[in-house]
TrEMBL record:
Pfam annotation, one family: Cytidylate_kin
Annotated ranges, domain Cytidylate kinase: 3-204
Name under which the protein is recorded: (d)CMP kinase
Protein EC: 2.7.4.25
Highest taxon in the source lineage: Bacteria
Taxonomy of the source species: Bacteria, Thermotogati, Deinococcota, Deinococci, Deinococcales
Matches recorded under InterPro entries: Cytidylate_kin, Cytidylate_kinase_dom, P-loop_NTPase
Family per similarity comment: Belongs to the cytidylate kinase family. Type 1 subfamily.
Gene source species: Deinococcus wulumuqiensis
Gene Ontology molecular function: ATP binding; dCMP kinase activity
Gene from which this protein is expressed: cmk
NCBIfam families: cmk
Catalysis: reaction(s): CMP + ATP = CDP + ADP; dCMP + ATP = dCDP + ADP
Length: 206
């Protein structure tokens, strides 16, 4: 079984996927972390994120490992756990440029398709491109303001700055982020986290 949960930035994909996966007793897989890890390593190596080839060669020298734990995924580079650094604002600002390269998307997709089902996969194009065969597909939305208010509880920046950055990231991600034709779109704005998880579990179990 594969369940896909796509959606716009900070719509609740990771929190919801973790809850759904725990209820189903299966892992969840966060595709965005692979794009974030590529961005972090590119920034640390002072590479131009607008150029795919040097970034891809750099990544091929430093293989990454995605660990899909139910309470939250981790990304390892050898013994180094990159996870704590993947949600900093510099990575948020650079990641869409990295994700726009078809070569980088192929690099991420290959790692995801190697994972053995069952799992819940979350991202932008899990239901459309990576796992079109998934048995249940969902796409999460919420207004930029609500998403920014939720995120402000986790970040030092103020709500207006977070909202502006989310709107910009959504615009940059639009090409690869769309609901699959057979996905159920859920506006998480008026719902609690538990209500969103319950809606999805209802859909999965039919
Ligand atoms: N329905 C909800 N009601 C209230 N808070 C929520 C809801 N869904 C998510 N949240 C909160 O919103 C914040 C963002 O959620 P989360 O990190 O899961 O989003 P995301 O879509 O994975 O983000 P990103 O795209 O940046 O990886 C978290 O603090 C989470 O607890
Ligand atoms: N399937 C995906 C997943 C992510 N991206 C890009 O990575 C960025 C970070 O993802 P989060 O889920 O952690 O927000 C996102 O803004 C996209 O640029 C993607 O392209 N496809």
């Amino acid at each position: 079984m594969i369940v896909t949960i796509d959606g716009v930035a900070a719509s609740g994909k990771s929190s919801v996927s973790s809850g759904v996966a725990r209820a189903l007793g299966i892992p969840y897989v966060s595709s965005g972390l692979l794009y974030r890890a590529a961005t972090l390593l590119g920034l640390e190596a002072r590479l131009d994120l607008g150029e795919a080839a040097p970034l891809l060669s750099h990544l091929q020298m430093l293989p990454l490992r995605l660990e899909p734990l139910p309470e939250g995924n981790r990304i390892w580079q050898g013994e180094r756990d990159l996870t704590p650094q993947l949600h900093q604002s510099a990575v948020d600002a650079g990641v869409s440029a990295v994700a726009a390269h078809p070569e980088l998307r192929a690099w991420v997709d290959e790692q995801l398709r190697r994972l053995p089902p069952p799992f819940v996969a979350e991202g932008r194009d899990m239901g459309t491109n990576v796992f079109p065969q998934a048995g249940a597909k969902f796409y999460l939305t919420a207004s930029p303001r609500i998403r920014a208010e939720r995120r402000a509880a986790e970040r030092p920046e103020d709500v207006d700055a977070i909202e502006a950055a989310l709107v910009e990231r959504d615009a940059r991600d639009r090409v690869q982020s769309a609901p699959a034709p057979d996905a159920r779109v859920i506006d998480t704005g008026p719902l609690s986290l538990e209500e969103v998880i319950a809606e999805i579990l209802k859909g999965v179990k039919g």
